[in-house]
Amino acid sequence: MRLRTAAARRFAGALPSLGVLAVLALALAGCSPERYPQTALLPLSDFARIGDDVQDVTFYWALGVFILVEGALVYSIFRFRGRPDDPEPSQIHGNTTIEIIWTLIPALILAAIAVPTVKGIFETNQTPPNSMKIEVIGHQWWWEFRYPDAGVTTANEMFIPQGKTVEVIISSADVVHSFWPPRFAGKRDVFPGRETRLWWKADSTGLFPGQCAEYCGIQHARMAFHVRSVSTSDFDAWIEHMKTLGPKPAAKPAAAPAGDSLKTASAGATAPPGTAQQKDTAAAPPQGPEYAAGEKLFMTKGCLGCHSLQAANAPKGLIGPNLATVGARSYIAAGWLANTDENLERWIREPQAVKKGVLMPNLGVTADEAKALRAYLRAHK
Amino acid sequence: MATTAIDQHHAHAAAHAEKTGLWSWLTTVDHKRIGILYGATAFFFFLLGGLEALIIRIQLSRADNNFIDPDTYNQLFTMHGTTMIFLAIMPLSAMFFNYMIPLMIGARDVAFPRLNAFSYWVFLLGGLLLNASFLFGAAPDTGWYGYANLTSRQFSPGPNADFWNMGLQILGVASLAAAVNFFVTIVNMRAPGMTMMRMPMFVWMSFITQILLLLAFPVIAVALILLMFDRFFGTHFFIPAGGGDPLLWQHFFWIFGHPEVYILILPAFGIVSEVLPVFSRKPLFGYAAMVFSGVFIAFLGFGVWSHHMFTTGMGPIADTFFSLTTMLIAIPTGVKIFNWMGTMWFGSLQFKTPMYFAVGFIAMFIIGGLSGVMHSSPPADLQQNDTYFIVAHFHYVLFGGSIFSIVGGAYYWWPKMFGRMLDEGLGKVHFWLMLIGFNLTFFPMHIVGLNGMPRRTYTYPKELGFELLNQIQTAGSFVLGLAFLVFLWNVIRTSRRPRNAPADPWNGATLEWSIPSPPPEWNFDTLPKVSGRDPLWDEKRARGGQMPEPRAGTGAGIHMPNPSYWPLVTAFGVAAIFVGIMMLPKWGPWGIIVAVALLFFGLYSWLFEKGYSEFTTPSHGGH
Fold first, then answer.
1. Does residue B27 contact residue B421 with C-beta atoms inside 8 Å?
2. Could you report the per-residue pLDDT of B479-503, keeping only the tens digit for each?
3. Is A268 exposed, middle or buried, given 0-12, 13-18 or 19+ CB atoms closer than 10 A?
């Protein structure tokens, strides 16, 4: 028994050095935010920088206090270590002066944090004038983005113009979510029956991840989205393109190209038929029998009950995401599954296996049918 | 005459003889036994909650992992939080309230011994009901904070949220009954001479905790009743389609939830404030400041709830108010930390196991406190909220704080409670494994959190880069698990050893160390007289050395409350009411009617039961 205890004591003695090693390993594990595309530490907008600057102030004060207080604690552990037979130390009950000092110093530090905090609160709550409005609607478990001025709608991939302030008006179709594009802004909760707001002006272009940050049911983890920040001219072109993706005529020949909404939009009586024809072939993606079969399946399998294929004047209140540009998106299934042909077919065939509990049921789509549907959807760009 | 006195003496000795067997535990009203019941039950739930955490950690150790499916994960994280808060930390504190408060204030029991038993049984039944949900594959899955309107029938049709709703209601009854009991005990039952400002700091912090419980739990009870109406009777308090507002739930929840945080941490403050002076051989530094900083923290605790809701967009005025009140709390908290260090400063530090944990507590709690100040600032909190940065913060407070302190308290008071000393060597192994495992598990969470990993997500895509740090966390969590296996081994080994702990193994300052380990049922043969803050130190100093080893008397002439099973019956009545509500759609009102009948039967029998054994003239005076 005694031996075992002695061994235990030796083991206990060796543990602190193991601890130091562990901490070193952790430091080496790399904390640089560049490794994390969804980081909140590399802000890319004016709004995000307000929070980041305040966070830096609090962090450096906290770090200073941490070093001083933990240092004093470690010092006292070694300096005042006693033996059982040491004489009783002097019985100090307190010291008013020093107690007042260590009440006042934290108060002053907090004042130093409070000033930029309050400034930041008022800055972030004030939307700059002349901003572009985008409506964000949270759904279980995907994101709808509506551009009210242009009258266009998309899902899970939010287009924004670089260098222009966007004001985001946020609401929910079902439960509470939280909209969080960390590179551009902090979170804003998403409520049913209540509007919340957020704004920012993006510095740079690119594709940046974000995701829902309030637990909202079984697939909360898979309720992601991307913000695609593009130049103003690209953004305007995108809006113009989206405006053309309007409602389709009810009955269309199965072979009609995906670009046929383009034709509907541009084929006026005044336009020379030749030009329109030329435009069509230029815009239309290569079509095949798969596309035709896919379109038929899309109409008959009930997909339209939940999904819309029109970006312009899209209906509100649908359960599933808008698919007008699904073929062009980088990700499917709400921002986390790469939009490859293979993934798209699997997602169509067995959504419940890919994302358990998602509101899209398994519809008994066969492998061939999935190929056709994939070809049809892929053409929607 | 002399023979009669001796006979009486023997009769009482027999009456107070150690009771054993299951029945004696089911009917006990002894605060010490109830304390042990609380401790054992809470430790079991703590291990269960820890197991849930380990499964969560395995799932998160790889990106896009399929170790468990999403609904299992959601049940596990909900139950982990609910279990650790309501079934582990709170009742572990209750273990010390029960066992130690009467001893520390020089009382023979709590004010209402049967109510005390009732609290325990209600707590046990509430915990069992919550966990029984696993048997039906329907454990709560809406988070420990159960945000509306996800908890509405429309979005949570199953019984999961009902288990949570009813389980929490039952636990609330237990907490409120216990809070009334300890409040009255501390106000009324202190030994002669123990003024409020002479109470041990653990008793002070416990006292404040009871007030918080009394004020905070009714709020969650009301909120849970409203939720029950929404789910069972078609009201729309939290349902926007019917004119309700889910945001209302958040306000209700956090008006309860923030004081709840102090309910979890103040007893831990108290334990550390007992351990540090004893092992520094020096009185607590700044006693009055410690008392009033505790009061101030508790008072402010009711004025900061919306700092959990900065992301809801409350507007600049509300954000500013709640941000500044939150920052204010850092001041009394800082005072406490500095006073603990002031206690150690110039002391003669004796590094026994309880001291390791107390110092570990200070070191870890500082980190949790500082990250807390970081998210008191709304512009920064908009990023931090609902990420792993928050998970890191509150584990530094509740694990690095509460659990370190409670474990330290266990090593400190173990000899008093069980008459056996836990092994020091194993205790130190436990400490180092826990410190390393704790930091490996929770420190990287700060980093992944700020780098974009949200909470309550069953998985994450590989391309977000979170995998490596999550693997380190998972490894750390197993080190933590190992630490508690060492503790379990220590407990088992110790229980096989002779019961030979001295009454005062640490040179204690407070009254519990003046009586045998473990104490007799009646605690004190003669109620002590107190004339200072560290009564036992004062006495030892007056004698010029250690006290002689106390020996328990026979208990003759001391009347103690009788055992009773009516608290247990009544507790079943309370729990059955909530089960009846859950079963309304199936059983109709009959379940509730039977339950209420059982409750009244229990209460009625309790009222007319003879509570105390016959008073007999003491064979010799002085009681």
1. no
2. 999 999 999 999 999 999 999 999 9
3. exposed
> What are the two backbone dihedrals, phi and then psi, of residue B62, each rounded to the nearest 5 degrees?
-135, 145
Sign of torsion over alpha carbons B538, B543, B547, B550 = negative
What's the pTM? 0.91
pLDDT digits (tens, 9 = 90+) for B519-550: 999 999 999 999 999 999 999 999 988 888 88
Count CB neighbours of B55 within 10 A.
Answer: 16
Buried-state track B399-424, b at ≥16 Cβ within 10 A, e below 16:
bbbbbbbbbbbbbbbbbbbbbbbbbb
Q: Is A140 helix (H, G, I), strand (E, B) or coil?
A: coil
The whole-angstrom distance between A13's CA and the closest CA on chain B is 8
pLDDT of residue A251: 39
At residue A31, the 3 state secondary structure works out as coil
The span from the CA of B316 to the CA of A122, in Å, is: 6
Among A16, A125, A175, select the one facing B150 at the smallest CB separation: A175
How many whole angstroms separate alpha carbon A316 and alpha carbon A144?
10
Q: How far is B230 from chain A (nearest CA, A)?
A: 15
Whether the bond between B537 and the residue before it is cis, its omega within 30 degrees of 0, is no
Q: What is the Cα Rg of chain A in Å?
A: 29
What is the identity of the amino acid at B5?
Answer: A
Question: Which residues of chain B are within 8 Å of residue A88 when distances are taken between CB atoms?
Answer: 281, 348
Tokens for B573, please give them.
Answer: 């009545």
Angstrom distance (rounded) from CA A196 to CA B15: 69
Phi, psi for residue A196 in degrees, rounded to 5: -120, 165
In whole angstroms, give the CA distance from residue B239 to residue B245: 6
Cβ contacts of A379 within 8 Å, gap of 6 or more: A257, A258, A285, A287, A291, A327
Domains of chain A (ranges; CATH) run 240-262+279-378 (2.60.40.420)
Q: Which residues pair with A134 in a beta bridge?
A: A168
Pairing of strands A177-179, A337-338: unpaired
Question: Does A26 touch chain B if contact means CB atoms closer than 8 Å?
Answer: yes
Residue A201 phi/psi, 5-degree rounding, is -125, 115
Q: Across chain B, what does the average pLDDT equal?
A: 93
Euclidean distance between CA atoms B561 and B378, whole angstroms: 54
At B411-466, the pLDDT tens digits run 999 999 999 999 999 999 999 999 999 999 999 999 999 999 999 999 999 999 99
Q: Flag if A186 and B469 touch (Cβ within 8 Å).
A: no
